[in-house]
Fold these 4 entries.
Entry 1:
Amino acid sequence: ADIKSQMPNAQCVVTSMNVTTNLIVNREAPPFDNPDLRRAVALLRRGGDPLWEARTRNHRYAIYAMLGQAAHADRDLAVVAALYTAAGQELEAAMAMHTRGFVAFQAGDLPMALRLRDEVAARYAALSTVMPDLSIDRCAVLLAAGLDAEAFAEMRDAVEKLDSVPLSATK
């Protein structure tokens, strides 16, 4: 509804994938055809600003993901994670890897989604960071793979772990 009020000529199509709601966008219209992000990434890379390159790629991945270009989205997120790791931004690197798992899941690559979830869990644990969303995401992948018992065990373990950890009001 908000899109329609801002752009009355927009055509919005909502489709269900049994996981999240996806919006099909017009890849020939702004902001999705905007070459500025491509140019910005190139300039930041040449200029030697890895943090801003990572941030820019992080925004660009979202556009690729919305366009259904999972390989491009994954490539940007892999670079984002590497740039953040090299800059000592380990939490941001872990979050980029977490998002790579989401992209793999949306693309239907369940083995990759689970592998990335496991890698991210190790990264978060090394940072003593509790991320409840990771268990929810892992459970969704397990359910999509038809692994109901494993999904139930994941949620049971997550609830037990979370009961012993103070969390913010938003989690």
Entry 2:
Amino acid sequence: TPESAPAGPVGRRSDTVAAIITTKRFSHMPLRLFTLLLLVLCSLLSGCRDDDPQAALQNAVQQLQDNLEHKRSSAVLEQLHEQFRAQQQFDREWAKRTMLMLFMRHKNVHVLALSKDSQLDPTFHDKGYTQAQIALTGAEGLIPDSAAQYQVKLEWWLHDGEWQLARLDWE
């Protein structure tokens, strides 16, 4: 009988069969685990992608706010379209100089969005708009020493898959 087979280098036959089954089961287990982890990772990453243009636009607005608050002028400039215009007259160089002045004057800069609404253009898929009421504060310490409230209108253009700020107007 297989159970009474002599023990040798292989051992009893039932032990050998069990070992083969166990080895087969566990040799595929890491591959299965790896595949499962890979699938979970891919689904998480694809869930974070901005396939939804509306979500991507809202993310760009939030990124602009974060970049301003963290005084990352180069990141803000990357978000500005090469044909950027503010108040129909100021260009990217003006934006750069204005940020430099603001960031040098104030140790802390805060952009508080009191309200904001972003919409895609119903006709042109590569344009989006944001209207916001913001409070811009600057401070040397914890207490703001300057504050102003603005109603802003932003026009975004989709360029190479990224929303870039093309027009900025305020009241």
Entry 3:
Amino acid sequence: RDLVGVVTVIREAGKPAFTAQEQETAFRLSEFCGNIVRNALRLNKTEKLHDFKSTKSQALISIVEALATSNDPDSIVGVILAHVPVLLDADRCTLFLVDQDRGELVIREGSSQGRQNKSDTDGFGAQEIRIPISAGLAGHVATTGAALNINDVYQDSRFNTKMDEETGYRT
């Protein structure tokens, strides 16, 4: 399997956990997007979908259209990150790209997006943040391939608080 990245979807502390249906949607969307990004990087060939009416359908269609019409990974990532919070009623979405050569997860500037009424800035000044591929919950997902849904990340010893401390956002 050719891993291209790790997506995290987060709700603020105190909000209800994601439902089983939302988890399944996130998992399937991650798989779907990963496959399409992989194919876009290799072949830049996907099919477009026709217009639908609901907000969530519009968000999904925007993602698929971007994937079908762009061969720029940064552009594709930006569209995905902008629309996943709408699809899953999440506060934030962060893409951790996998750098296999250096054994690291990479968060590029603009790779973490919140909903429109939330801050759309990353909260850190660096062009990118690099962490060991085994660090934190995203590292666990990257190294095992297993999806996680954790109600209170602060109760999980794998959770890396560094990002919350640097950005001021409480996961």
Entry 4:
Amino acid sequence: TIGAATSSYMEQAPGDAMLEISSFIRQYDEGLQGYGRLNTIVETPAGACEETGVPKKIEAMGVFEPDCKSFLGCLFCENFLLHTTETDVRKLLSMKYFLEKILPLSRSVSGFELTAGKTLRRIDEFIEAIKQASSEINSIVERVFLEVYKSKALSPYWQSKLYFLSRLDLI
């Protein structure tokens, strides 16, 4: 009955409710730690990494070996994580913008293609996949693209790399 439901479930003391919520959050955090994900995910200029220092090549990709010293290889590593967020979209588009800007610095187009060219195509694949998530994220991708390419609003890491090269008059 409504009376039984109200007296049994709806009239909980605020302190009891806080204890239950706190207990749930603690158990949830413990569950995440049990999977090892809570403490191992590290933000990177390319997105995020599930296990830094232990690159694992995606065998099906058949491209260069990922290396934790270069963020170009992150996109080809099994530990690479990407979220459909404005932050990660900006990281990818900033990386793409940066790579396109340094193309003229390459000794040869074929040398650039071996690493950066494949990375550019991989970025495009990720961006297309992200755009498919929802119309809302598609709008975010379009807006961030304009901000990066028109206003030069890159993510902080890629902005600093670009600034450094411009200070050296290389771009």
